[in-house]
């Protein structure tokens, strides 16, 4: 669509009928665009106008280019995203008071749906019970790196390309949280399509944010494993059998790496 000022734009609407969680997410995104979008060290869509009333929330955002299917991403695109995430995660001086991000994974680990998890994983993952009993260790590894400001829903469908640069969109889950979450979710969402996130992303990230690289790799491994075990089974019905098979293979590989390192006391990934 086109705004009254002639700017190419798109409209996001969250009606109250979607429920309180959806409204809270829309208001969080509005708050991000109003308070932080102009000062974070990454590109985000420009807020043109908004409406926040009892009936819902609407955001009018300037057009920010288009997304690419994950299998169309080039290595340099992944590297650019790694650079941008590192810049976001290492940004200082952001006014992040009262900006605690939502933690759906933490909630799923606190109150796991064991039956659904077991139905999806037990036949493919011999270590299922071992990992489940060690959930506190998984959580500890996830939290090995201090919290930072994160995007919170970082996957390639939320990244657009505009005149040669990346734009991070959909900030509804942004806030202070685990940096490993942004990195791990990229891999989780790419896996069903048969795409492995290349090393170039992590290498570019660590060129910007060089501190605690071993802990970050370990945290990202644990975070991705936790997402697959505790959250993915609820979304399996929306994916193809081939995609779910790829998820199971990825989960099996991550579990072997995590249990091997935990049992040996190793810290590299």
Automatic annotation (TrEMBL):
Record flagged with keyword Lyase: no
SUPFAM superfamilies xrefs: Protein kinase-like (PK-like) (SSF56112)
Keywords of the record: Transferase
Keyword ATP-binding: no
GO MF, any single term: transferase activity
Domain spans labelled Aminoglycoside phosphotransferase: 7-213
InterPro entries: Aminoglycoside_PTrfase, Kinase-like_dom_sf
Pfam family, one: APH
Protein name: Phosphotransferase enzyme family protein
Organism of origin: Micromonospora pallida
């Amino acid at each position: 669509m086109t705004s009254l000022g002639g700017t190419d734009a798109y409209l996001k609407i969250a009606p109250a009928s979607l429920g309180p969680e959806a409204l809270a997410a829309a208001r969080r995104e509005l708050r991000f665009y109003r308070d932080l979008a102009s000062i974070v060290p990454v590109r985000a869509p420009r807020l043109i106008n908004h409406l926040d009333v009892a009936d819902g929330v609407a955001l009018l955002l300037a057009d920010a280019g288009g997304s690419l299917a994950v299998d169309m991403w080039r290595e340099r695109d992944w590297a650019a995203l790694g650079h941008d995430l590192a810049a976001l995660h290492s940004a200082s001086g952001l006014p992040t008071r009262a900006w605690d991000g939502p933690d759906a994974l933490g909630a799923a680990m606190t109150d796991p749906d064991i039956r659904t998890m077991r139905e999806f994983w037990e036949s493919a993952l011999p270590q299922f019970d071992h990992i489940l009993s060690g959930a506190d260790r998984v959580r500890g590894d996830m939290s090995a790196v201090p919290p930072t400001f994160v995007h919170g829903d970082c996957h390639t469908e939320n990244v657009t390309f505009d005149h040669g640069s990346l734009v991070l969109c959909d900030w509804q889950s942004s806030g202070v949280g685990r940096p490993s979450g942004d990195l791990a979710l990229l891999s989780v969402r790419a896996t069903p399509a048969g795409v492995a996130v290349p090393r170039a992303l992590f290498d570019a990230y660590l060129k910007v944010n060089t501190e605690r690289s071993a802990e970050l790799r370990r945290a990202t491994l644990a975070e991705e494993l936790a997402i697959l075990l505790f959250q993915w089974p609820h979304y399996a019905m929306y994916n193809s059998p081939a995609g779910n098979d790829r998820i199971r293979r990825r989960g099996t590989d991550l579990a072997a790496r995590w249990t091997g390192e935990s049992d040996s006391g190793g810290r590299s990934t």
